[in-house]
């Protein structure tokens, strides 16, 4: 945001022990209804929402640790990779699946865009070096507000 001359910030709400819906359970490799920690984010530019994200982590993975709440405790806001490292889990890679679609009524309301405006929906999942999914998220970005660019490092 700073490079764009905007003040970046975020707001979040975390709910612990939320049963995983079928699609989230499949992405996390857990049973449907298994408990998760769900965190909903609104990312802001100059105080206006520009991106939404809903993150899901298996509760059994972080229960009883200092990182159980992504935005609470001594590792608040440290991100998935650093939080998992704090409990001995090495995150080795993430997979992102972007797809265009129309905004839902709720997304449009939160983002201040027209209902059915085009958004990019990114399904992102972080994996441990053991191949276990440790977090999955649905990220919503209004197509008219930004350009999504990826840089992919090449290891020789």
First CA to last CA: what distance?
A: 32 Å
In sequence order, what are the helices and strands, one letter per element? EHEEHHEHEE
Q: Report the radius of gyration as a whole number of Å.
A: 16 Å
Structural class: alpha+beta
Number of helices: 4
Shape: globular
Helix content range: 10-25%
Count of distinct strands: 6
GO molecular function: DNA binding
Protein name: UbiC transcription regulator-associated domain-containing protein
Domain UbiC transcription regulator-associated: 3-147
InterPro entries: Bact_HTH_transcr_reg, Chorismate_lyase_/UTRA_dom_sf, UTRA
Outline the structure in words.
InterPro entries: Bact_HTH_transcr_reg, Chorismate_lyase_/UTRA_dom_sf, UTRA. Pfam families: UTRA (PF07702). The chain has four helices and six strands. Strand 5 (118-128) and strand 6 (133-142) form a beta hairpin. The radius of gyration is 16 Å and the shape is globular. It has helices at residues 22-28, 59-62, 79-86, 105-111; strands at 8-19, 35-45, 48-58, 91-102, 118-128, 133-142. Helix content is 17%, strand content 43%. It has a six-stranded antiparallel beta sheet with strand order 1-2-3-6-5-4. It has 156 residues and is α+β, with helices and mostly antiparallel strands.
């Amino acid at each position: 945001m700073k490079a764009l001359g905007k003040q970046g910030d975020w707001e979040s709400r975390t709910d612990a022990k939320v049963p995983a819906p079928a699609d989230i359970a499949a992405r996390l490799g857990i049973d449907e209804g298994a408990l998760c920690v769900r965190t909903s984010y609104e990312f802001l530019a100059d105080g206006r929402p520009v991106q939404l994200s809903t993150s899901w982590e298996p509760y059994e993975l972080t229960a009883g640790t200092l990182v159980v709440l992504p935005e609470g405790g001594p590792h608040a806001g440290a991100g998935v990779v650093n939080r998992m490292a704090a409990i001995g889990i090495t995150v080795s890679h993430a997979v992102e699946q972007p797809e265009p679609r129309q905004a839902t009524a709720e997304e449009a309301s939160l983002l201040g865009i027209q209902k059915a405006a085009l958004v990019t929906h990114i399904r992102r999942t972080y994996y441990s070096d053991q191949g276990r999914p440790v977090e999955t998220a649905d990220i919503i970005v209004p197509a008219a507000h930004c350009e999504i660019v990826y840089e992919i490092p090449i290891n020789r």
